[in-house]
Amino acid sequence: MRASTHRAFVLSRRYEEAITESRKSLELDPDYWLALWFQGQALEQLGRYAEALPPLKKGHMALADNPSVLVAEEARVYALSGRRADALRTLDQLMAMSKHTQVSKYAIASVYMALGDKDQAFARLNQACAERSVNLEFLKVAPELDVLRSDTRFQDLVRKLNLP
User: Fold this and answer.
1) Quick check: helix, strand or coil at residue 106?
2) What is the pTM for the complete model shown?
3) What pLDDT sits at residue 64?
4) Assigned CATH for 1-64
5) Average confidence (pLDDT) per 10 residues, the chain, 164 residues
6) What pLDDT sits at residue 70?
């Protein structure tokens, strides 16, 4: 299964289908990190936080050289499930990683969103914009950004990126 199919299901909020397709991909390759990531995202969006953590943690193993996207998603799950101390500890790991390797500012912003710190989230999104982060192409549809959509800074960012 192609990663674009997993992503399409998550972005269209068809989470159960994303989980089903991820499982099919994982039957073929149990370490396919993108399937693990999208499965974790879908489970997170459904509020099934305890189920979301194992695929994300397994994905860390598959991406030993730079698992930052999965570490960020893990921190989000901790934050959204009320495990703030774990979220902050994991965010610290992510920030430490950023000293040695490229870590997406968008991913960091997503953690701050989950923690409820909109100011830090927008600061990181603006950094992502300055860095021309590829993740910003999903700005208008990514479910993790739903909490920011009503904020005028979000609309400013959409205009800044000249998104339709």
Assistant:
1) helix
2) 0.87
3) 67
4) 1.25.40.10
5) 76 93 92 89 95 87 75 93 97 93 91 96 94 85 91 93 81
6) 84
Question: In the chain, what is the straight-line distance between the N-terminal and C-terminal CA atoms, in Å?
Answer: 29
Name the nearest CA neighbour of 125 among 145, 143, 100, 141.
145
Domain ranges of the chain: 1-64, 70-164
Please give the structure tokens belonging to residue 65.
């050289």
DSSP codes of every residue in the chain: --HHHHHHHHHTT-HHHHHHHHHHHHHH-TT-HHHHHHHHHHHHHTT-HHHHHHHHHHHHHHTTT--HHHHHHHHHHHHHTT-HHHHHHHHHHHHHHTTTS---HHHHHHHHHHHT-HHHHHHHHHHHHHTT-GGGGGTTT-GGGGGGTTSHHHHHHHHHTT--
